[in-house]
Specification:
binds flavin-adenine dinucleotide; 15% strand; 7-stranded mixed β-sheet; 19 strands; 619 residues; alpha/beta; single chain; 18 helices
């Protein structure tokens, strides 16, 4: 290991991941901790990293409280409805009451916001969304982080969290390696804020072979946000609540502006409104939830999937009407230029001009993320003024490990945060982390060199494995003594796809399939000890795979535990096809024992804080 130099850095706040939540955390940590040492470590380069790397065309979470457009309570009701009742309302409310201030800062920092010419307000795309020229969204927030941090480390992948050896259950920092130099980095930290995004590519993607890597979600989001805390025994919540997106086929271009601003709509191949056709069947499964407005995202997916299974596909977005208006036509194209230029290229390659041809839609493979229209992630403490006792243990957004905080996709139970809400949650986590240090909760942390050296051996082991195993290659990349990261990834994706409710089974699974999936995942875990990496890039792939595999185990355990179909359209439990409010109107929480690797599951009450409080006030 001598060839991999070790660098040590001691700091107060270590931010893992410099995406939306990580830049928000880095910025806010400086505000509250003028004298603190703040470090942000990013796998890519924070100027163009994370889900917003390519830019966005809309900020999807803005209340507009200054104009009385929406209140935080409205947003809680909205998220609760969309997630079929299952959200942490304390977290959602807390984010919503602060998110406008975040957006106002983006405006001050030079993010081009579209304005409504008649009112002078931000131009609304929908009730929660405002439109931006957002190609440079990420460099703008990155600049704020760069000006705030003592140091930003780019190109370092964090592989493990360090734990305090003086006090049980307290974090002590993190380790990782530089993907360019191969150096090993030890960050001894008083607090760690994990903001490493969600997980794509754990389920087999629709695009394989020539299109491999093309997904809706960022292909580089590899579940570190979940695997890092799971590995040290932090509790997780709602990991079964994976997301499936209905998007333009093959390019996964966004549909929000099309539905909301251009007022386009969907129809089946016969030109029928297929959603209506599935109303009775959906009501059988979920009861009155189908009558809620707006229709929960998963239930709209459900109609799409059922119609396709029934032979009514392909499903089209009707663009030919809206695109006759030159202004709307421009908006339709610009929408892609700002965030998914690849969709325009796909249409060009398929000879589709949406003015004359209605483009096809598809449903994606499932992803795991905590900031979009689902809420998988870590089980965190809420704010002290809002959270019931079960949801509060001292510091806002602190996980069940002392000193370990989370934000954005990392945090479970709080859906519909999107880019602005994730940045806001990073700010909230950073404020709490500084308070934790000021309260002297981080004094006396001990991280021995032995702990770091053990991790160093583990981190570079795939390179060592390859060095030996390459001599046993029988042909191509076939070797009896190692597997490559891509081989391991494809094996993982097939297990998840076929047993845990991916596209192969039209998102269907059941207890028996999940049990088998868990067995196969356990054997994969065993074999991943033999993953080999021929260079530093493959070493990154190896660690991405290990993080994806651990995240997948957690998703499968959760899916097995919740014996109902709470979100038809995201996945189905064939052995429990109906939503079951009597037994499952609750949040699911897991903990993996770091020593045994076994998961323990529990149900935790879901508190409907917003309207309950109002009801109490009224009575
Ligand atoms: C396709 C798509 C479209 C979207 N459209 C919109 C929209 O129109 N409007 C809107 O408001 N929101 C939108 N969102 C949501 C928004 O992008 C996310 O809510 C937000 O980016 C989440 O922030 P985050 O910091 O949790 O994750 P990210 O922004 O993804 O950041 C995670 C960061 O962690 C880094 N990282 C990962 N693993 C490691 C590791 N092991 N070590 C170090 N660094 C690591 C990553 O490189 C990345 O920089 C969209 C998301 C997607 C995927």
């Amino acid at each position: 290991m001598a060839k991999h130099k070790t660098h040590y850095e001691d700091c107060d706040v270590l931010v893992v991941g410099g995406g939306m939540a990580g830049t928000g955390a880095t910025f806010e940590a400086r505000h509250w901790g003028r004298d603190k040492k703040i470090i942000c470590v990013e796998k890519a380069n924070i100027d163009r990293s994370g889900a917003v790397a390519q830019g966005l065309y809309a900020i999807n979470c803005y209340m507009g409280m200054q104009w009385g457009e929406n209140q935080p309570e409205d947003h809680v009701r909205y998220a609760r409805n969309d997630l079929m009742g299952m959200v942490r309302e304390d977290l959602g409310y807390d984010m919503a009451r602060h998110v406008d201030s975040t957006v106002h800062m983006f405006d001050e920092w030079g993010l081009p916001m579209m304005k409504n010419e008649k009112t002078g307000r931000y131009l609304r795309e929908g009730k929660w969304q405002i439109m931006i020229h957002g190609e440079s969204y990420k460099p703008i927030v990155a600049e704020a982080a760069k000006k705030s941090a003592d140091k930003i480390y780019n190109r370092i992948m964090i592989t493990h969290l360090l734990m305090d050896e003086n006090q049980d259950n307290r974090v002590g920092g993190a380790v990782g390696f530089n993907m360019r130099t191969g150096d090993f980095h030890v960050f001894r930290a008083k607090t760690v804020i994990v903001a490493a995004g969600g997980a794509s590519h754990i389920f087999k993607p629709r695009a394989v072979g020539e299109g491999m890597g093309r997904t809706w979600y960022a292909p580089w989001s590899n579940g570190s946000a979940y695997a890092l805390p799971i590995a040290v025994g932090a509790k997780m919540t709602q990991m079964e609540n994976r997301i499936v997106l209905c998007r333009f086929k093959d390019g996964y271009g966004p549909v929000g502006a099309y539905f909301l601003h251009l007022k386009t709509y969907t129809q089946n191949a016969n030109g029928e409104n297929y959603e209506k056709k599935w109303y009775d069947q959906t009501k059988e499964l979920v009861g009155e939830y189908i009558d809620h407005h707006p229709t929960p995202t998963c239930l709209r997916n459900h109609a799409f999937i059922q119609e396709t299974i029934a032979g009514g596909g392909p499903i089209h977005m009707v663009t030919t009407e809206a695109f006759q208006d030159p202004h709307l036509e421009t908006v339709g194209w610009e929408n892609f230029l700002g965030m998914t230029v690849g969709q325009a290229v796909v249409w060009a390659s398929q000879n589709i001009d949406p003015k004359y041809t209605n483009p096809e839609l598809t449903t994606s493979e499932p992803y795991v993320m905590g900031s979009h229209a689902t809420c998988s992630g870590a089980w965190v403490s809420g704010p002290e003024d809002l959270s019931p006792p079960e949801y509060f243990w001292g510091y806002n957004r602190m996980l069940t490990i002392d000193g370990l905080f989370g934000a954005g996709d990392t945090v479970g139970g709080s859906a519909h945060k999107f880019s602005s809400g994730s940045f806001t949650e990073g700010r909230l986590a950073a404020k709490a982390a500084i308070k934790y240090i000021e309260d002297k909760k981080a004094d006396g942390i001990k991280v021995t060199d032995k702990q770091c050296e053990d991790f160093k051996d583990a981190v570079f082991k795939p390179l060592e494995t390859y060095q030996v195993a390459q001599n046993e290659i029988t042909g191509g990349t076939v070797s009896p003594s190692y597997i490559s990261p891509i081989q391991g990834l494809q094996r993982l994706q097939r297990i998840m796809d076929e047993y845990v409710g991916g596209i192969a089974t039209n998102y269907m699974t059941n207890g028996n399939m999940l049990k088998r999936g868990l067995e196969l995942l356990a054997w994969l875990e065993e074999d991943l000890e033999k993953v080999g990496a021929e260079d530093l890039h493959q070493l990154m792939r190896a660690w991405e795979l290990k993080h994806r595999a651990l995240t997948s185990q957690c998703v499968t355990e959760h899916t097995m535990f919740r014996e109902e179909t709470r979100w038809p359209g995201y996945y189905y439990r064939g052995d429990h096809m109906k939503l079951d409010d009597d037994n499952w109107h609750c949040l699911t929480v897991s903990r993996r024992d770091p020593k045994t690797g076994k998961f323990a599951m529990e149900k935790v009450p879901v508190y409907h804080i917003v309207d309950e409080n109002e009801k109490k006030k009224a009575s």
